[in-house]
Design a protein that fits this description.
The complex is a heterodimer of chains A (373) and B (248).
Chain A (H helix, E strand, L loop, with lengths): L53 E6 L5 E5 L15 H9 L3 E6 L9 E21 L4 E22 L4 E9 L5 E10 L4 E10 L2 E10 L5 E10 L4 E10 L5 E10 L5 E10 L7 E10 L5 E10 L6 E9 L3 H8 L5 H17 L5 H16 L1
Parallel strand pairs in A: 3-4, 4-5, 5-6, 5-7, 6-8, 7-9, 8-10, 9-11, 10-12, 11-13, 12-14, 13-15, 14-16
Antiparallel strand pairs in A: 1-4, 2-3
Helix pairs in contact in A: 2-3, 3-4
Chain B lengths: L2 E11 L2 E12 L3 E5 L6 H9 L4 E10 L2 E2 L5 H7 L1 E4 L6 E5 H13 L5 H14 L10 E2 L5 H15 L3 E5 L7 H15 L5 E6 L12 E6 L2 E6 L1 H10 L2 H7 L1
The chains are: A mainly beta (373), B alpha/beta (248).
The structure holds adenosine-5'-diphosphate and magnesium ion (MG).
Adenosine-5'-diphosphate binds next to helix 1 of chain B.
Chain lengths: 373, 248
Amino acid sequence: MGLDSKPSSTLHGTASHDLADFPVPTGREENWRFTPLSRLRGLHDGTAAGSGTVVVNVDAAPEVTVETVGRDDPRIGRAFVPADRVSAQAFTSFEKATVITVPKEAVTTRPTVVTLRGEGGGAVYGHVVVAVEPLAEAVVVFDHQGSAVYADNVEFVVGDGATLKVVSLQDWADDAVHVSQHHAHLGKDATYKSFVVTLGGDLVRLSPSVSYTGRGADADLSGLYFADAGQHIEHRLLVDHTVPDCRSNVDYRGALQGDDAHAVWIGDVIIRVEATGTDTYELNRNLLLTDGARADSVPNLEILTGEVAGAGHASASGRLDDEHLFYLQARGIPYDEARRLVIRGFFAQLIQKIEVDEIRERVLGAVEAELGS
Amino acid sequence: MSTLEIRDLHVAVEDKEILRGVNLTVRAGETHALMGPNGSGKSTLAYAVAGHPKYTITSGTVTLDGEDVLSMSVDERARAGLFLAMQYPVEVPGVSVSNFLRSAVTAVRGEAPKLRVFTKELKEGMDALSIDPAFAQRNLNEGFSGGEKKRHEILQLELLKPKIAILDETDSGLDVDALRVVSEGVNRFGASGETGVLLITHYTRILRYVKPDFVHVFAGGRVVEEGGPELADQLEAEGYERYTKATA
Ligand SMILES: Nc1ncnc2c1ncn2[C@@H]1O[C@H](COP(=O)(O)OP(=O)(O)O)[C@@H](O)[C@H]1O
Ligand SMILES: [Mg+2]
């Protein structure tokens, strides 16, 4: 992917493995204008003290190999190039990386669960590579918990005809700061399903991106978030269609409640000149449950070819619909329960997409817990 | 025996007075037809009694068995025994029919029905109204045809067994088969003699299936004439013209 062929209107002037190529953001950049830099604890300007701990534990399916490797492992940085300052900081600062490999044609019998538990202290930098070899199928769950100032890059390399389903739970403690890049690099006829759930943390900025290397690949990116008072939750998606006949579908939904609850969703989809026959749709919906909450939702669909199979986007942010509540209440259902039913309904179609029963139950439980408060 | 009593009810929407002194009493065992031209305020009356937040009561009273309905929240009214079958039931994404019905039944009865009992009750209710059992898993009213929505309103009526039911143009937009099915449901509901029905309609067609004891003509935000079933026949022959002229 040539850097100079980046479409003009769509962000990221720079992509580099070298931190020095990224000036310290001021907050005026398109890329950073929604993020409260003062709450990044120095992840963005090199002042973060790297003395914290995030314990990584992998409970792997038997078919999968898990390795902890050093910086010089050749599998690192193959599939992606950092495109912002914090991603580059993480890339130049991590000490050990986790490499998870799903061998060719292996079909895993259970999910591989990566638990990342923050134990406080200063900044921690992480790197994970998940390589799914051709025709293999796997489910990988990332479960982020505890207290941390954490910046990381996760590379998903999905081989030809392979299928990878990823669930990433950001269930951090209230004071956590997490800035993360999830990049999926899809082979011919590959299937990638990402489900992001962001609930906890003071500031979470997660940037899922997808690139394609062969025809017929399919990316499905779902996200669910719940921003409470004071939380900043930001998801920045980039799907770059560079080859013909691939699909992408993005569906992110969030609920916000409490003073200064802030959610940001950026959805960039580029369909390059050569990416004929692309089929893409992206959707973001926000439910503002109280005054004082704010949602910024910015879909960007840039189509550079005349021959697409489908391309659309939608974004809507609003309050609970009074007519929905009235209907349920008119059948005797008390207000609080009616509200819960409607909010659950708002997320239901998304949650139903989670194929791992225990994760789906956990996400449902987490949503219930948010609704109870 | 239950009584819904509406006295000198005045209702405004966005500072515009729509209802101008409505008086109406519906007792258990009675079926009342409330008929009137479009825009006369029939739905406003229904919504005001049900407690929709858009409608402001400026004066008057509504009581159910002597209890002040207007001081109750929407859900309290439903639990007290009032039911409104809506003219335009809303679609609620992501909330399944079965989940919704179970929540409603639990709220109104004050305890959760046993799952097996409820499933059976639901199946019988749906059969009686010729509703495809697959609807139980669908999202509430989402993608339902007009007729399917109305049948589903009557299903709720039969499951919730209110004291007094207000049916707002449940007959509108139904073909003859659906009208018959829906009417049978209303008649089953009324058959006990312990419930009252206020049937709001624009047309006399449904009155061939659901026989009213009383007919009220509604125009300009109030009841302008009352009588027995013969009044419906007169409306059928003459239309609403003379009432709309009188209030214009
Ligand atoms: N929610 C509303 N907002 C604004 N105007 C309304 C609303 N509901 C009713 N109205 C007005 O009140 C009058 C009566 O309407 P409605 O009660 O729907 O009559 P009907 O059911 O007899 O056709 C109409 O003029 C209508 O425009
Ligand atoms: Mg009406």
